[in-house]
Amino acid sequence: MDLIQVENALKKCKRCNLWKIRKNVVPGEGRKNAKIMLVGEAPGKEEDATGRPFVGRAGKLLNSILEEAKIKRSQLYITSVLKCHPPQNRKPFSGEIKECLPWLEKQIETIQPKIIGLMGNTAIKSLLGFNGITKMHGKTIEKNGKKFLLLFHPAAGVYNAKLIPKMKKDYAKLIEFV
Ligand code: URA
Predict the structure, then answer these.
(1) How much distance in Å is there from the Cα of 64 to the middle of ligand 1?
(2) 7 CB less than 6 Å from ligand 1?
């Protein structure tokens, strides 16, 4: 399966119950051979309405942090662990993550990024199996031949602006993989 086939198959996904209430699947967006991949938690309301990742408030902060790091969104592939919006932005259920994760794994296999930025604990827990953003942000970890950078989720900076300088420092580390 190539990336377009994965994205098209995803749009028909009914593996968990979120398909019943979604407006759009949000498969992800970006270059098919991106060297940098960013992974968030789950689409929010605006992403559900548009079918595009990180277009809401967290996305705007992400854009400005990337701009400062001299990275263009068009150089990346951006997606989330869940591809459908959980109602009221609740945390994804573990069953939803279990059903959805094979899609993310397929995306990683087809894109083969040099670095995978895991934004927030849902992405970290889903791919690495532990919670550790507070102590481990800014660190890189290798697992199964893949390299991961642990990053705060942009929404963390929306709710707590004091985190933004730390976020800028951590996200700037992505530039060496461009
Ligand atoms: N938060 C996420 O984790 N993903 C999105 O696409 C938007 C907000």
Answers:
(1) 15
(2) no
Entry pTM: 0.98
Cα(55) to ligand 1 centroid in Å equals 8
Domain span holding position 39:
34-177
Query: Which residue out of 18, 23, 79, 80 has the highest number of ligand 1 atoms within 8 Å of its CB and is therefore the one to mutate?
Result: 80
pLDDT, tens only, 52-110: 999 999 999 999 999 999 999 999 999 999 999 999 999 999 999 999 999 999 999 99
Residues 122-159: tens digit of each pLDDT? 999 999 999 999 999 999 999 999 999 999 999 999 99
Quick check: is 85 in a domain? yes
Ligand 1 mean position, distance from CA 28 (Å): 10
Q: What is the CATH number of the domain that holds 159?
A: 3.40.470.10
Contacts by residues 47-54 (CB-CB < 8 Å, ≥ 24 positions apart): 47/85, 48/22, 48/23, 48/24, 48/84, 48/85, 49/23, 49/24, 50/24, 51/23, 51/24, 51/25, 51/26, 52/26, 53/26, 53/28, 53/29, 53/78, 53/79, 53/80, 54/78, 54/154
